[in-house]
Amino acid sequence: MSASNLAAIDERLDRLVNLDLGGRGVEHLHAASRQLLGASPVGAAADRLAALKHEDVVLATTGSVSRAWISPEIGENDGPAGLAAVVRAVSLSRRALCVVLAEATLIEPIGKLLTAAGVTVVPVEQGKIAARDKSLTVVSILPFTTRDEDAGAEAARILDELKPALLFSTERVGRNADGIYCSMRGVDYGMDRARIDYVFDEAVRRGLPTVAVGDGGNEIGMGAVAEAVRAHVRFGDARPEGGAGIGATTGADILVTAAVSNWGCYAIVGALAARLKDARLVHTAEMENTLLKRGVDIGLINSVDGVIDANVDGIPLSTHLAISEIIEGIVRPALR
Questions:
Q1: C-beta of residue 170 within 8 angstroms of C-beta of residue 80
Q2: CA-CA distances (angstroms) from residue 125 to 121, 162, 235, 264, 272?
Q3: Percent of the chain with pLDDT over 70
Q4: Regarding beta strands 138-143 and 97-102, do their DSSP bridges make them parallel or antiparallel, or are they unpaired?
């Protein structure tokens, strides 16, 4: 397929996943990211994944502690499914070794969702060995510190040891200009939260490639479009009690925005499948149904409605299935 046809697919994917069904102002964030890159963010992210080599290390993260003031074990269902789709696609197509960072409290549920996507979760020590087996999709999961005073040193250590070729984040909150981890409602919910944005700050400082996905302005990567967050996102300019707005200060080389972060990941995976002409990589509606219903079994929460169900960000399951089907339809011509 020609470059112009791939570009057209990328643009359709961008438009689809940025339909602002939640009324969060995400279309403005997409416009800012698109202008910054001068190209489709989804396409740019897919190109970055396609450039990975066998046994490259991808350091990835997700996992939003939805009600941190109650318990650090209440995880959100937006993020893990999207990450599972990306890890699966990268493992299948590039044979890269994915290492996921998360709260110690969320390692088990994230691992179960990755397993539901067909990815084998192994200890870090075995990961590099397993990655050499071309018949196995594999990921390792590590906890990261919840202490600000330890985060910088631990971030440097992890980057030194793993030497990642790429860092990937989806639906992972970053601290705002006042150093606060803010919910979409402007609530401080940083208690017992892993300080993984410090890893991305250090990666940016070192010039390592970074890709981030977000839907609300408070996630890692949104520092790249900080002005748009302040102008177009509720509480983007100031929290209800005053001080800096909810926007995360951590940026990324490539920021993919979406009305639901999971959708952004599915679009990236679809664009990757189109580039590699590999239909195995597409996130299907069947897989979406499997992952979101598995999330219910695990206890992941629909954070907008505050209940455990297969809806995400208050949007019905049927819509998420439809988005997955449309993504597959958009990329299908490239797979023939």
A1: no
A2: 12, 11, 43, 31, 29
A3: 100
A4: parallel
- Round to whole Å and give the CA distance between 40 and 13: 9
CA atoms of 162 and 139, how far apart (whole Å): 13
Report CA torsion sign: 277, 47, 10, 255: positive
Phi first, then psi, for residue 263 (nearest 5°) are -60, -40
Task: Quick: pLDDT tens for 115-134.
Answer: 999 999 998 877 777 777 77
Residue linked to tokens 């520092």: 223
CATH (domain of 328): 3.90.1640.20
Which runs of E-coded beta strand occur in 62-186?
A: 97-102, 120-121, 138-143, 166-170
pLDDT at 147 over 80: yes
Tokens representing residue 46 in the block:
């897919």
**Residues ≥6 apart with Cβ < 8 Å to 301:** 66, 67, 74, 75, 76, 77, 307, 308
**Which pLDDT tens digit goes with each residue over 182-209?**
999 999 999 999 999 999 999 999 999 9
Q: Helix, strand, coil % (nearest 5) of the chain?
A: 50, 15, 35
Q: What is the CA radius of gyration of the chain?
A: 18
CA–CA–CA angle 122, 123, 125 (5° rounding)? 125
Return mean pLDDT, the chain.
Answer: 95
pLDDT surpasses 90 at 71: no
Number of domains in the chain: 1
For residue 257, the cross-strand partners are 214
Of 239, 323, 231, the C-alpha closest to 282 is 323
* Candidate from 68-77, 168-177, 246-255 with smallest mean pLDDT: 68-77
Terminal-residue alpha carbon distance, the chain:
10
What count of residues does the chain have? 336
Rounded to an integer, the average pLDDT of 93-101 is 95
Taking residues 233-242, what's their average pLDDT? 96
Mean pLDDT of the region 292-300: 97
In angstroms, rounded to a whole number, what is the distance separating the alpha carbons of residues 115 and 117?
A: 5
Give residue 29's domain range: 3-335
